[in-house]
Amino acid sequence: MIIRTFFVLATLVAAGQALAQAGAGLDDANLVSAESLSGHALVDEQLAATIVEARPYLSAAELDRALSDALSADERAELYAAVFRQINLNSASREEIMLIPGMSERMAHEFEEYRPYTSLEQFRREIGKYVDEDEVARLEQYVFIPLGLNSASEEDLMTIPGMTPKMVHEFEEYRPYTSIEQFRREIGKYVDDDEVARLESYVTLD
User: Fold this and answer.
1) Could you tell me if residue 188 is left (phi over 0), alpha (psi between -120 and 50 degrees) or otherwise beta?
2) Contact partners, residue 122, CB within 8 Å, separation at least 6
3) What is the 3-state secondary structure (H, E, C) of 68-121?
4) Maximum distance among all Cα pairs of the chain, rounded to whole angstroms
5) Cα 36 to Cα 48: distance, rounded to the nearest angstrom
6) Displacement of CA 66 from its chain's centroid (Å)
7) Cα–Cα distance between 168 and 171 in angstroms, integer?
8) Distance CA 154, CA 130 (A)
9) Cα gap 175→55, rounded to integer Å
């Protein structure tokens, strides 16, 4: 009976790990609710409120700095397994790459080695040389590739965290963009400056 119980528990744990590696459940630090944050063992209501108040985080480094007074490095790493701010694959510093839970200096080097990335398919192919598909999927949760304002498809734009079909329409409505200032001006008609800045961090002028 004990052996059977242990086998069942081990199977459930393995299944849970597989789900996590497949990309389920990682919350965006700019979008997750205070209620969800405070449900994490390391985050009380006061810290949850502090995290929400300090938004938007335009980089993972900004999020890490905001948490550094309240949580140790190990605690932050544990939290980042559930809540994170995606890093730009083409411009993130080594420091930011190392914030990804389970990251090693060797793997961080491989992240940098294949820059510039032009697609997530390229990321999967290159990083898949070193780790299995489940680990590639887990790592992919933590990264993004900037989208061309004038060329990104509707499907691509919908990959921006918090994007809605209505906002995708507004992104496309003002094409072609000739400057980032134009983007800020046009999208600023619909959202506040903080949200414009957050959205801007996911795009590039192509």
Assistant:
1) alpha
2) 114
3) CCCCCHHHHHHHCCCEECCEECCCCCHHHHCCCCCCCHHHHHHHHHCCCCCCHH
4) 69
5) 9
6) 16
7) 5
8) 32
9) 28
Q: 177 with 185: CB under 8 angstroms?
A: no
Ordered per-residue pLDDT tens for the chain, 206 residues: 433 333 333 333 333 333 333 334 799 999 999 999 999 999 999 999 999 999 999 999 999 999 999 999 999 999 999 999 999 999 999 999 999 999 999 999 999 999 999 999 999 999 999 999 999 999 999 999 999 999 999 999 999 999 999 999 999 999 999 999 999 999 999 999 999 999 999 999 98
What backbone phi and psi angles, to 5 degrees, belong to 73? -60, -40
Q: Is CATH 1.10.150 what the domain over 147-204 is classified as, yes or no?
A: yes
The single-letter code of the amino acid at 7 is F
Residue type, 115: R
Angstrom distance (rounded) from CA 65 to CA 184: 26
Contacts of residues 188-192 at CB distance under 8 Å and 24 or more positions apart, as own/partner, are 191/167
Q: Within a 10 A sphere around the Cβ of 48, how many other Cβ atoms?
A: 19
